[in-house]
Amino acid sequence: MGLETIDLTPRIGTEIRTDAATLVSGKHADTIRELLQQRGVIVMRGLHLSRGDQLAFSHTLGQVQPQGEGGIFKVTIDPKENPGAEYIKGAFFWHIDGASDDVPNFAATLNAKALSKTGGSTYFANTYAAWDDLPEDEKQAYDGLRVVHSFETSQRYVNPEPTVGELNFWQMRTPKVHPLVWTHETGRKSLVLGSTADHIEGMDPAQGRVLLSKLREWAIRPQFVYRHDWTEGDLLIWDNTGTMHRVDPYPLEENRMMHRTTIEAIEQLVGA
Question: Could you confirm whether the keyword Mitochondrion appears in this record (predicted)?
Answer without folding.
Answer: no
